[in-house]
Amino acid sequence: MLDDLDLKICRALQQDGRLSNAELARVINLSPAACFDRVKRLRRDGYIRGFAALLDPEKFDRGLLVFVQVLLDRTTQDAFSNFAAAVRLMPEVLECHMVAGGFDYLLKARVKDMAEYRRFLGDALVSLPSVRETHTYAVMEEVKAQVGFGV
């Protein structure tokens, strides 16, 4: 069970994962040794899964963000497994979520531009196992993009 100090640690690290232990301890008003032990426990227990750098997609020629609804032609365990395995190998796909509702998967992908997306859609996405239909939503403006969630 997480207490208020654990939650403060998680909030601080979501805002800046590069905080040193001493800086983190100062931010949450705890001794460095106690802070270190708490972070170690949070990592061991799976509350903190890892740390990553946030990269500027424009600098890496990945300026176009798209969301794609994917409907499979059948909803069998094999179809789901084969589709998921194929998507995991696609570097353009940042996230893939199986959803309930009128379609089966929601993908979040980044590519250079619309021409590259058209190639990705035609050469890779629609040729994935069991894909029957896709609907694409190109992002015109990222109003709020947040890593993590409020704790």
TrEMBL record:
The keyword Transcription regulation applies. Gene3D superfamilies: 3.30.70.920, Winged helix-like DNA-binding domain superfamily/Winged helix DNA-binding domain (1.10.10.10). Keywords: Activator, DNA-binding, Transcription, Transcription regulation. The keyword GTP-binding does not apply. GO terms for cellular component: cytosol. Residues 2-65 form the HTH asnC-type domain. It holds the Pfam family HTH_24. GO terms for biological process: regulation of DNA-templated transcription; response to amino acid. It comes from the Bacteria. One of its GO terms (molecular function) is sequence-specific DNA binding. This is ArsR family transcriptional regulator. The lineage of its organism: Bacteria, Pseudomonadati, Pseudomonadota, Alphaproteobacteria, Rhodospirillales.
